[in-house]
Amino acid sequence: MSLNDTPSGERIHIGFFGRRNAGKSSVVNAVTNQELSVVSDVKGTTTDPVYKSMELLPMGPVVIIDTPGFDDEGALGELRVKKTKQILNRADCAVLVVDATQGKTPADQELIRLFEQKNIPYLVAYNKSDLASAPETLGEKELAVSAQTRENIEELKERIARLTKTEEDSRRLVGDLLSPGDLVVLVTPIDSAAPKGRLILPQQQTIRDVLDSDATAVVVKENGLKDTLQKLGTKPRMVITDSQAFAQVDRDTPKDIPLTSFSILMARYKGFLEPAVKGVAMIDRLQDGDRVLIAEGCTHHRQCEDIGTVKIPKWLKEYTGKDLVLEHSSGRDFPEDLSPYRLVIHCGGCMLTQREITYRQKTAGDSGVPFTNYGITIAHLKGILKRSVELFPHLHALLP
Description:
The chain has 400 residues and is α/β, with parallel strands linked by helices. It has helices at 24-32, 74-87, 106-117, 153-164, 201-212, 225-232, 246-252, 262-270, 273-279, 307-320, 354-366, 374-381, 385-388; strands at 12-18, 50-56, 60-66, 93-99, 122-127, 142-144, 183-187, 216-220, 238-241, 259-261, 291-295, 325-329, 343-346, 371-373.
């Protein structure tokens, strides 16, 4: 990924929903001007959600999601419907495609109920308007279209854009903590788990945010931090490190220089830093046999020193001295029922939308399960949690 690419977690996710053979895939292809989805007269052609990242005017960077038919039948159909419901947890807006020759059905009404239940902005597109008329009176969220003749397809795109347009996003990773001219030192270990030829996404985004603030970013490996700080000749505004190097970076960074991690900043950016600080206290209450879910928002090749499956489990065992049952999830494979777990430890969520992170946090909250993240967990296990959040005074009262 280049620095100019927009990551999936920062793109508007637009889900297209509806019954089998309502023409969802045809509408998706018409909206995108690409053959993104297979089109057939056979019901249920789309068997799995189809995801496509692209630039779509007038919205900009988006992810288009074409979903399986919501009225599918049988055991496989139940699985497809379950996947469709899961997509609702990451969609920023929804387009319900209704077959104009048949009108709304109970399945369509159920989808609208789910949109409203999950507070997802939505539109209803009556497709096949070249074959049949839409209802005489259309609501403000309804529109007659034809994927075949392209009738009102441009209007549909304009309406989706208005649906997703919000006030300018004021969230910052770190820029709101900086002033022009500040110096920030970023510690980025390069080990077997580091991607070849590039930095991981949170590191890229942090560098960009520092530069957007007219501040200066100095990037070093963990074994070069101490020497770099001595050579700078001026005290940095802060040091930001990969959480895996927390212990060494804490030792090498003078106590009068604030220290935090990319993962902690990402949790703040995604809106769950406060719950993560609250949730980490559960680590001190874990007992033998307790189940802990370690969840990642993306999938990647596991290296021998993988943070989620190797390092955090090792540090948890050393810290707690307990015989814990550790389970793992990655990508979109996140359990809907979290009640069997005593704690969820999540990654920073850089590849997930804020809506999906909020959903996962809420799922844990509904089950009464504490929810924390990698950076907060590692800082706690290494005994430096208080220092790692000193940039955020409002959190100090929440520390375990």
